[in-house]
Amino acid sequence: MLPASTHNLPSSNEPRILYCRCAFAQTIPDDVKQRVLEGLSESDQPFEAVADLCEMAARRDPHLIELAKGNRPLKIAACWPRAVKGLFHLGDAPLPESGVEIINMRTLSAEEVLAAIAAPMPHIHPTQSAEAKQ
Amino acid sequence: MIAHRPGPLRVVVYEGAGSLPLEASMRTSLFAALLDRGYAVTRAGPASADQVEGATLVVLGRFAGVPPEVTAKSGDRVEVCDVTGKSCDEAVELVERVRGETPMNRPGGVPADTWKPWFPVIDPVRCTNCMQCLSFCLFDVYGVSVDHTIRVENPSNCKVNCPACSRVCPEVAIMFPKYHAGPIDGAPVSETDVGREKMKVDISALLGGDIYARLRERSADAKTRFSRERSSDAALAERRRCLTKMADAAAIPREVLDALPSAEEIQRRSAEAAKRAQEAFAAFQEASLRNSPSAP
Fold it and tell me: Is residue B296 part of a domain?
């Protein structure tokens, strides 16, 4: 275990952030995923980034289970919410019914994605998703 | 089987106590470079430093020559790399050195490492476990889980760019996230989509039970014509013409159809797949009845 950070301690309700690079295919527009990564890098927030959720699901990476569980809410900047839920399910790591927000970088602009990441999770309801915003 | 290679290591960019933060531009470049090489990267807060059992963790940070003490769980390997004064490329090189010769999936890497994650993803909310996909697929992509539900068993058996099984799913429950259009890419399913997909199933039935049954017939026709005309060019042309028609009907790339085995082998696999699907569907029905609230 690493020593505790002094400047970026997450509070117990602060959502974890997961960013998918979709590196194995060009389904997410390059400029969107790059600007979202820049926005995350410029912020003070800790975040997880993976090369490609599809690739991880295909090899049932145990890291998916670690990402799906956890006591804090989770915001996932990736693809269509239906696909993301299916990928976690395929990876034997079904996402919990509540406390997860999936933000679709395939259809939203980088600004919209970053705003959704920064916004507080309004309420913990069955898997919230940015799908509703489209 | 490329798809089942384990992830060789995870990278943590650590900027907490005992380390100086990176500039935002350096952080972005480092994340982008590592992700584009296939690594998972964490910008560390203390809660995110736990690691997967048996994994190798590479901790990058500007420790000014005094790396932090890191306690690894038994069986785990933790490598701490000081990137003070190093460029993005040099930091990536450190990670690559820790990985060594351990193979990993690479996005757009050298040909042997290149793999497009193309496989069906089942929407568990829509799927009714009718097992049509299990019956349809000749490449053993699908299997049945211990609770008798459909499961994508061998994703790497799937034929890249072929979304044909999603076309035979009556519930539009099969997605290919790397596909270019909805609802196959995972976009929300509309009532129109459901109607359209059902129509495609009917078209498939009209073609002769299923697309592969039609293929068998066409192959047989082509074979007869070949022996009659003794012209390999004519036979090939006929096969191409038929395959193009079928490829259009079910959005199957022609390379996939061209790569299919002999008609006899297709027949054998079809029968096997149909039998498995029937057994799985019967077991699922039985389990559902047993678990229903009205069961005795």
Answer: no
E-strand ranges in chain A read 16-20, 47-50, 74-78, 100-104, 128-129
More confident residue, A11 or A108: A108
- B106/B125 same-domain check: no
Token reading at B79: 């490598």
Residue A51 to residue B48, Cβ atoms within 8 A: no
Instruction: Tell whether omega for the bond before B183 is within 30 degrees of 0, i.e. cis.
Output: yes
Residues B66 and B126 in one domain: no
Query: Is this prediction's ipTM beyond 0.85?
Result: yes
What's the maximum distance between 2 C-alpha atoms anywhere in chain A?
42
- B77 and B174 fall within a common domain: no
Token pair for residue B218? 């066409």
Of A2, A51, A63, the CB nearest to B46: A2
Mean pLDDT by 10 residues, chain B (296 residues): 60 89 95 95 66 70 82 76 95 95 77 74 95 87 92 91 88 94 94 68 46 56 46 50 61 71 74 84 86 70
Q: Is B107 within 8 Å of A89 when comparing Cβ atoms? A: no
Beta bridge partners of B42: A48, B12
* Residue positions counted in chain A: 134
pTM (2 d.p.)? 0.81
> A81 to chain B: nearest residue by CA?
B186
- Interchain pair B7, A56: CB under 8 A: yes
Does one domain contain both B133 and B272? yes
Judgement on whether residues B136 and B162 belong to the same structural domain of the protein = yes
pLDDT tens, residue by residue, A33-43? 999 999 999 99
- Is residue B2 within 8 A of residue B105, CB to CB? The reply is yes
Instruction: List the structure tokens of A6.
Output: 């002094």
Which structural domain, as residue segments, surrounds residue B203?
Answer: 121-291
